[in-house]
Amino acid sequence: MAAPLVLVVLAAVTVRAALYRSSLAVFIAERVEVASPLNAWKRVVEGLALLDLGVSPYSGAIFHETPLIIYLFHFLIEYAELVFMITDVLTAVALYLAIQDFNKVVFKKQKLLIELDKYAPDVAELIQTPMEMHYIPLKVALFYLLNPYTVMSCVAKSTCAINNSVIAFFILATIKGSAFLSAVFLALATYQSLYPLTLFAPALLYLLQRQFIPIKLKSKSFWLYTMQYTSLYLCSLVVIICLSFFLLNSWDFIPSVYGFILSVPDLTPNIGLFWYFFAEMFEHFSLFFVCVFQINVFFYTIPLAIKLKEHPMFFMFVQLAIISIFKSYPTVGDIALYMAFLPVWSHLYRFLRNIFILSCVLIFCSFLFPVLWHLWIYAGSANSNFYYAITLTFNIGQVSRVRQMKENRDSAKRG
């Protein structure tokens, strides 16, 4: 499988290199679907300019990335395009290795259940063959590297690509069973964008299963392992935050990064659900509804942990989808990460209702985003309602697809 993966990587790098040299690069970098106030490359450049002048990059209201990111590009600004291409390749390789290892575990479990005759006769077509599993890791890498959403994020030099890479290595460490590396990468992902905190639960559940520790509240081994993993995660997060403080000699980054994410002060249109709602709302109601909208991202974690405790990888996939839909400043790069996992559950596709319609909805909405933006901003023949309507349709399509996969997963389990 190494040769096909190399071919995919070469094709992906070629496409990105060609787009970097084309006139489309500037157009893509300015698209609100691709770059947000949090991860836009223009804002990173502004932050670097302030840093070079000896001024804190957080002294204004422009830069909202983390200190580690700005210091990374402080040394690698001349090689930014190469950095983003390498980041995408590393993400794809990490996902490839993670799913390869995950499929080995699934195959062993599936073989054991077949030998014990635990499967009902009517679910035989849901059992994956070794040949099907063999190509899934390559499909995952292909779905990530050649996804137009990923390509656009890379060409726009959105720092979302770096966040995706950190999450991919977190998933790889979790599947490999390394609690320490899993906690470190999860802490780094949380430090970068806050919302990956919700991935703590599926990671813990997977590691518990791998250690054959029963998931029971009365079990001492369950609580001991949970405390160990929690301690590793919190210590890693504290170390990273303290390192940021020593780099800047200031705590200014905390309100500028995490306060910005949580309070949503910049209502620049994007593919999320926040901007239009708060642009139309009276100021004195905004705090309450900001809390409601933010809680929405974290609210589903506990019920999903109870429902999907036996399937932590699927739980992680659902959580990634929830983050990309309900976070305050989403971009297409966030969507590309969870979409890369779709081949893992390809055996459920035949049972999905309206899969063709939902796929067409997402594709057509993707093309309509720039059209309606032009009609609203430049032609003046539309307004914000048109753009937000497409945003709602796009997110409803995502929610419907994830919900159907969840329902079919439950049906297969009951069968």
What does this structure look like?
There is one protein chain. The radius of gyration is 22 Å and the shape is globular. It has 19 helices and no strands. The protein is mostly helical. Helix content is 72%, strand content 0%.
List the helices and strands and how they pair.
Elements: H1 2-20, H2 24-29, H3 41-52, H4 67-76, H5 80-115, H6 130-145, H7 148-155, H8 160-176, H9 179-193, H10 200-210, H11 220-248, H12 253-263, H13 274-279, H14 283-299, H15 301-307, H16 312-326, H17 332-339, H18 355-379, H19 384-414
Signal peptide: 1-17
Protein name: Phosphatidylinositol glycan anchor biosynthesis class U
InterPro entries: PIG-U
Shape: globular
Largest sheet composition? none
> Would you tell me the structural class of the helices and strands?
mainly alpha
Helical residue percent band: over 70%
On the 0-100 scale, what is the average pLDDT?
A: 89
Can you write the helix and strand succession as a string?
Answer: HHHHHHHHHHHHHHHHHHH
- Beta percentage is under 5%
Number of helices: 19
- Poorly predicted segments: none
Distance between the termini: 33 Å
Cα radius of gyration in angstroms: 22 Å
β-strand number: 0
Pathway: Glycolipid biosynthesis; glycosylphosphatidylinositol-anchor biosynthesis
Family: Belongs to the PIGU family.
Subcellular location: Endoplasmic reticulum membrane
Membrane topology: Multi-pass membrane protein
